[in-house]
Amino acid sequence: MYVLPVLIYPALLAALLLGAGLLADRVSGRFLPGALLLTVGGALLIAATQLVAYVPAIAPASPYVALALALAGLVLGRARAGEFARRLRASPLKLALPVGAYLLAIAPVLLAGRTSFSSYLAVSDGAVHMVGADYLIRHGMDFSHLDLRNSYGQLVNDYYNMNYPSGGDTLFGASAKLLSLSLIWAFQPFNAFMLAISTGPAWLLARRMGLRGLLAGLAALTVTLPALVYGYELFGSVKEITALSMILSLGALCVLHPLWLGGSARAAIPFALLVAGGVSSLGAAFGAWALTAIIVLAFVAAHGLRAGELSPRRLLALIAAGAGLVIIAAWPTWTHISGSVQVAQSIASTANSGNLTSRLKPQLVFGMWLWGDYQTLPAGSDLLLTQLLIVTTLSAALIGALHMLRTRAFALLGWLALMLIVWLAVSEFVTAWANAKTLMLTSPAVVLLAWGGVAGLRASPLRALAPLLAGVLTAGVLVSDAMQYHSTNLAPTGRYQEMAKLDALFAGQGPTIFTGFDEYSLYLLRDLDIAGPDFRFMPVDLPNVTIGHGHSVQLERTAPEDLVAFPLIVTRRNPLAPRPPSAYSLAWQGTYYQVWRRRPDARVPLARLVPTHGQAPACRRIRSLAAGAPAHSLLTASLAPTSVRVQIFRAPKPPHWGYQDSGISMYHEGTLSAPFSLPRRGPWGLWLQGQMMSEVRVAIDGRQIADISGRVGGDAVVPEIIGPFTSVLAAGRHTLSITRVSSPLAPGDGGVAVLSGAFLVPAGPAGLPALLSVPSAAWRSLCGRALQWIELVPA
C-alpha cells in the first residue's frame, strides 16, 4: 500500500511523461533537450486528458489514451531515448536532480512510513482536486445528473461546471487510475512529482547563467524548492505546482530560441503545448506568465528579422501553427473562456483569504523563511537570520542581473525582469489569496536571479566567494524547507482507510448525512452522495443544524421531517455525542465511524425535546411534550451513558505548555498528570479529545496504555476523538498522565499537539447511548434522568 503510491506511482508518471515528451519531440523536429521532455510531455498529456474529458462518453478512456500516447512516444522516440540515456550515464547529476527534488518534496510522507498527505488542516483544497479528478475521469465534463441538494453535487457543480481549471486534475486522475490508486494516497506523490520535474528547465536556465556541474545542480534544486513553493507543495496546490513547471519551461524555451524560433512550423509545438497546458491547469490567469515569454520571443524575433536571420514567411507559419495548437490543445478552456476569466477575477478579488490570516510578506519571494509557518513572521534569532539571508539573496540577485548584462544573456534577463513586473503589477490589484499564489510563482525566478550572482562572482576577481554564496543560498532554502517539514501535519491513515471501506460497503445507498467536519469525505464517500451540514456546501434540506462552517452538527435540533430524505447517517464514534434520532438504528461500527440506517417502518416524530447545555430536561418540559399527545403515542429518549470527566484544566501543567481556545497546547516535551475517580470496578474505555500529530504517551497509574501520533481531525475547531483505550480499573482514585515526546527528525514532530479533554465510559455496550420508550402517559418516568433528547413518536 505504501510503496505503490510513493515509489511505483511516480515511476509510472515518469514513464508516461517521458513517452509523451519523446512523442512531442519527434513531431516537433527533434530539438528538445532531455531536461524538457518531462514538462513538455506533461503538457501534452494534460491537453489529451482534457480533450477526452470534454467528450463525456469517452472520459473513462483517459488513462488509456495517456498510456497510448506514452507508448507511441517511447517506440517512435527510442533512438532519442537511447541518446538521452547515454548522456545521463555520462552526467548522472541530471537524473539525480528530479529524484532528489521528489524525495525532498515527499519527505514527510516518505519518512512517516505510511500513506498520507501533508499540511493537513492547513487548507482543504486538496479535497476539491480529489473529487474533481475522480469525477472528470468517471463522468467527463457532464454535470447534468448531479444532485445539487447535497454537498457533493454542489461542490462538483460550483467548481467544475463553472470552468474551474482542471488540467492538473485530469492528468492526476488518469495516471492514478492506471494503477487503480485511491486518489487520496496518490495526491501528495503527484504534487511532489510535478514539482520535481521543474528541475529540468531550472537546470537549463542555470546553465545559461554560466553555472556548471554541482553549482548548476544546486541552483536547479533551490529554484524548484524555495520556501513558499515548498509550502504550497505540502498542502497540495495542484494548479500552481503544475503551472510552475510550465512557466519555467517557457523561460527555458526563450533561452533556447536559436534551436527552434527560426525553424519550421512544427517547431512551435513544444511552446504551444506548454502554453495550453498552463492555461488548462491555471486558467486564464496563466496568460500573464505566458505573456512574459511571448514578449521576450517577440523582441528576439524582431531583432532576427532586422538582422535578416529569420525568414518572415517561416516565422508567420510558426506563429500560426503555435496559435492553432494552443487553441486546439486547450479547447475545453477556450470554449468557456468567459467563465474561465470570471473564475480568475473571482480568485483575484475574493474576500475569502482561505487559510491566510493576513497578506503574505513580500520578503517570501526570496525563497528563505526560517520558520515552520510561512504565514507567521519568524521570531528571535530566526528572524535575524532570515533577514540576513534575504539581504544576501537580494545582493546576489543584483550581481546576477549585472552578470547577465555583461554576458549579453538578454533573453534570460528580459524574461526574469518581466516575471518580476508581473508579480509587482498583479499584486497591486488582487487580494491576499491571489497575491500569495503570484508570490509563490515568482519566487523561483528571484532565487534563479540570485544564482546569477554566484555565476557573476565566479567570473570576477572575487571568485573565491562564489562557493560561499552558493552554500548560503542552498542552506537557506533547504533549512527553510526542513522547518516546514518539521511542522507539517500528516493526514490520518487508518481513519481514511476506514472511510473508504464505508464507501464500498454502502455505495449507492445515500444520500447520506455526514456529521463530522472533514471535507475529504466528499471524495472518500463519493458514492454515498454526502451531505455535510457544516461543510462549505451545506445540504439545502438541512437548515439550522450547525452553528457555522466547521462546527458540530446537531441533528437533534433538526425538524424531524427534514431527515426523511436521508437513508444513512455517518457519525464519528463518540460516546458522549447525542446518538441520531430514533428512526435510525446502528448498521455498522468501526474504529472511527458508525453508520446508522433509517428503518423502513420509522415514523416521523411529532415533536422533539433537546436539553439545554446537556443538562437533564426539566420535568415540566417533559410534561409539556406529552401534553395533548395522541393516544398510544410513545416518548422515546436517548439515555446518556455513564461517564467520568478527567479535569485536565485543573491539573498542573509543564511551564512551557500553554492554553488556546480548543485546549492545552503541548508545545514541548513534558507530562500532565490529572486525578480522577471511578464509581465502580470494571473495564473502562479512556477517550481523549484533541489534535495530536506529534507523539503522545498515555498512562493510567503509571502504566502506559497508549502511544499516539498522527491523530489529527478534519477540523481545527472541533477536536478529534481518540480512543477508546480499554483498561480494567478498580473503583476509586486514579491518575491519568499525558506525556508529549519529542522526535526532532520525525515528520510533523513540530505539528499540532493540543489536548482538549479526557473522559472515561464503561467499555462495551454499557458505554453506548441506549433508547428507552415509554407510553406518553408515563412521562414522569423520564424525569431526572440523564437524557440526550426525547421524541414524541406516533403509534
Percent of residues in beta strands? Answer: 5-15%
Radius of gyration: 30 Å
Helix count from the secondary structure assignment: 26
What low-confidence regions span 5 or more consecutive residues with pLDDT below 50? none
Number of domains: 4
Task: Give the overall shape, derived from the CA principal axes.
Answer: globular
In helices, the fraction of residues equals 40-55%
Q: End-to-end distance, in Å? A: 51 Å
Taking the sheet with the most strands, its summary is: 6 strands, antiparallel
The structure class reads: alpha+beta
3D structure, described in words:
Strands 8, 9, 10, 12, 15 and 17 form a 6-stranded antiparallel sheet that branches. A 5-stranded mixed sheet has the order 2-1-3-5-4. A 4-stranded antiparallel sheet has the order 6-19-7-18, covered by helices on one side. The model has no long low-confidence stretch (mean pLDDT 93). It is built from 26 helices and 19 strands. With 795 residues, it is of the alpha+beta class. The chain folds into 4 domains: 3-487, no CATH class; 492-604, no CATH class; 605-641 and 768-795; 644-762, Galactose-binding domain-like (Jelly Rolls), CATH 2.60.120.
